[in-house]
Amino acid sequence: MDEREEEKVFIQQLQKFWEQRGVTIKIPQIGGRELEVFKLYKAVTKRGGLKVVSANKLWKEIVDQFSFPATCTSASFTLRNHYQKLLLAYEQKYFFGKEDGYIYDEEMSSNRKKTKIGFEEENQQASYAVEAEDRQHQLEFSGQPLSTLLNQNYQKVEKAETIFFIKKSKIQAQASEVKRIMLAFESRIDDELTFAINNLLMYSCNYSQSFLIDQYPQLLDTITSYIEDTIKQISYLNKSYSFKTCLQTVGQQQLENLGQSQRKSMQVQTDLIKNQNVLENYNSHISIIMNDQTSEIVKPSELIYQKKYIDLIQGNYEKKAECKHLEKLRTLFVALRNFAMIRSNEACFMKQDKLLSFFYQILLSGADQELSKSALEIFSVLSKHIHLKQSVYMDAFMQKLIEILNGESYEDIGLVTETFRNMISISDNEAIIEGAIGEYIDQLARLLIYQNQELREIVLEFFCYLSDLKMATRLSIAKHPKILQRLVAILSIGQIKNNSLKQQEQRNNQDKINEKHVKLAAITLNNISQAPAAKQYLLIFEKELFLVAASDETVTPLLSQILFELSLVE
Length: 570
Hints:
This protein is mainly alpha-helical. The protein contains 32 helices and 2 strands. The protein is elongated.
């Protein structure tokens, strides 16, 4: 369907929309010709709807898309009025999924009473009544999750009624928009940052056309700079502010010029602000922050009183500001996670040492659960490129991964297991991961019987790598009281046909998964059997191995080799 046909369908849907409400519309004229209503609707909804366009003063940008004559001096005002009359209700219903009559009255309540929409008076009153009812409906369901509200709104749409959507291709990145995004991260203007982060999130979710970071070389640099500044403005993400830092800000040479009593007073004041974040230190006395030697040193008790007083005034403001910064940072991390999952972007991320260091610090600190989760998901993707010996965070990173692996969140455990599986495929990382086997082998053994098949497959792949390393590592796996038993049990899965599944396609898919798990278990057992000291632990399962080898052709060669090795044991 070309654009003209789309416009024709849209006009028909718009007319039907108003006819169902007892209103006959007429397409207005502007500048001596009929207004392109379809073009206007796309331009406004692409930017987030009427409220966003009006709040960010984007009407001039929309006017530029129309070739209005120079005599049309109030095009922005005229377009906005026409949009309110013809398209606002349609936008609220189909673009936002709202009830009929829902209109953002904060911007337009003063205009409604003065503007004639072309309806009869009773239709206007009915519209206001519906709006009031919708507001009551919103209050009733305000405590429900967003997903519930969306499902309720979706169910109210008639099945036979065609809904007009903006094409998915419209969320593809444009060079001008990306340039605006980079400028937003440099300028730190709040509205522009919201635009930038929301658009990055939108681009990162466009799977029809991947967003390739290498096409915009400076983008990650500007994002890294923004992340650095934002972390400094969120108190609980900051490190403690030590006395040593205070000495550095005052200046060692100037401290030497202070008398003993002044040194002691300075020490007391510094202790008061010790272990506080940098933002709170801005509330400390000016003699400390600005190093004004002419100012009188304030008594500690007075400094505490002054700080409490300032906190009462600024506390709420700072908390709200920190919340806004935190929400933006969380959303940005989600977008970065999505970008990292695009294979073509992995190399770009690995070149950003400073950005990676922030990911490490966020994960290691664990200060914010959502940020840490996004960082862990990023590492689960980039781990195939990570060389632990080249990272200054090697020891702390390994300890954190093991800590998460031994935790209770199976979603995080799956990410850590995937990270280990990817890192062990790099030869430089083998010795480091082998050396810590005693700290995580019990948890991996438990995951062999976990119900999630995808996680179990990752664990089996990791054991395949691990069992192909040093003989001592193979012996450690064989000595574990549960691993061999569970690997042999997985071999028997291949004998179970999924006749309980109704559809043949489902049975075939499940059989393929089981077949892969069986092969991975057989490869691991074969690797273990190559260690002479490990054979005695496999002898216990010789009968089970023989039965599986005789009945499952897919693993017969591997199990036959294991049985041959066991036959040589005296």
